[in-house]
């Protein structure tokens, strides 16, 4: 349940690209301690093509009462790029979630959950049957968050990046 009713979530359009990418890059620096990377951030650097013009993809943001972005969540068709997952997913019916960040000051107020709820609604409308994502066990609370949203572990890769792959099958 949303614990702050003055937060609203919407799918982003062209006028939101600058504040959304600024927020996401700030969060990437804070969460992963890195700057902009042309490989990892290819989506943010090609925001309009990927998240606005491509059917089946969208970028959601949560806004506070001052119209500032306080959370983001990207939805896009899963492209099958991860070797260890080959054969698990029907690429025509699988979405991937990424760029899930909530401003530190706004955490544990249901904003992440609200973004996921909206993403699931979008995915159902787009005809996806399953949602895939990966996260890292070293991120405080990230696995617990996805677990609380009904995502189940598909594969624990371990290793230095502590990557875990998770999935959720959508009910019709
Ligand atoms: C993970 C993240 C998106 C969660 O956002 P949020 O808005 O705080 O999440 P919610 O308030 O909707 O939390 C829903 C539930 O998830 C679980 N949860 C969330 N954060 C948690 C934490 N730090 N520790 C344990 N459980 C947590 C709880 O069950 C929580 O319900 P509760 O508050 O009633 O106990 C946020 O902490 C974040 O941006 N973290 C840094 C970036 C990151 O790790 N992103 C995920 C990368 S894949």
From TrEMBL:
It holds the Pfam family Acetyltransf_1. The keyword Repeat does not apply. Gene3D superfamilies: 3.40.630.30. InterPro entries: Acyl_CoA_acyltransferase (IPR016181), GNAT_dom (IPR000182), NAT_camello-type (IPR050769). One of its GO terms (molecular function) is N-acetyltransferase activity. It comes from the Bacteria. Keywords: Transferase. This is GCN5-related N-acetyltransferase.
């Amino acid at each position: 349940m949303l614990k702050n009713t003055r937060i609203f979530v919407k799918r982003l359009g062209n006028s939101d690209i600058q504040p959304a990418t600024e927020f996401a890059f700030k969060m990437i620096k804070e969460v992963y301690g890195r700057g902009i990377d042309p490989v990892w951030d290819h989506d943010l650097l090609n925001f309009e093509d990927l998240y606005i013009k491509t059917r089946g993809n969208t970028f959601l943001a949560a806004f506070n009462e001052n119209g500032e972005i306080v959370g983001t969540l990207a939805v896009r068709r899963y492209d099958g790029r991860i070797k260890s997952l080959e054969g698990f997913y029907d690429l025509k019916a699988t979405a991937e979630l990424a760029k899930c960040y909530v401003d530190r000051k706004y955490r544990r107020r249901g904003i992440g959950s609200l973004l996921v709820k909206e993403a699931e609604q979008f995915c159902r409308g787009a005809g996806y049957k399953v949602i895939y994502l990966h996260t890292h066990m070293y991120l405080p609370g990230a696995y617990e968050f996805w677990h609380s949203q009904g995502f189940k572990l598909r594969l624990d890769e371990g290793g230095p990046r502590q990557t875990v792959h998770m999935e959720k099958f959508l009910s019709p």
